[in-house]
Amino acid sequence: MDLRSEQLADGVEKISLVGRMDSIGGHDINQRLSALVGSRKLRAVVDLSEVSFLASIGIRTLVVNARTQSQRGGAMALANPQPVVAEVLKMAGIDTIIPVYPDVDSAFSALTAPGGR
Residue limits of the STAS domain (predicted)? Predict the structure, then answer.
């Protein structure tokens, strides 16, 4: 698994995840994402467009980091999941905990809107 991070406008950070969020890839990404997201307050868009598989460890990683941001006064949104990943998010009810958007632009707009997450 790979993780790439870049700053977007208005202080929003785009975090792109690449690969399979399974027991092997999920462990490494959990540590790297937690170090990036858990260390400070931020508004983050997590781009899932290149995540081909999402297992329970990946779900846990996303939920824990979204909750950490919420507790710090920040926000996290998920964007552009592949159909199989979107289905897992929906079946697990994650879309009711972390907002999921069809693309990065929609997630960015939601995070930067007045009163946005």
Answer: 10-111
CA distance 83 to 114: 30
DSSP 39: T
All domains of the chain in start order, with CATH: 2-103 (3.30.750.24)
Tokens of 60: 């846990």
Residue pair 19/51 in contact (Cβ under 8 Å)? The answer is yes
CA–CA gap between residue 23 and residue 20 (Å, rounded): 9
Burial label for 45, CB within 10 Å (0-12, 13-18, 19+), is buried
Amino acid, res. 4? R
Catalogue the E-assigned strands of the chain: 2-7, 12-21, 43-54, 75-79, 100-101
Return the structure tokens found at 30. Answer: 């959990």
pTM to 2 decimal places: 0.93
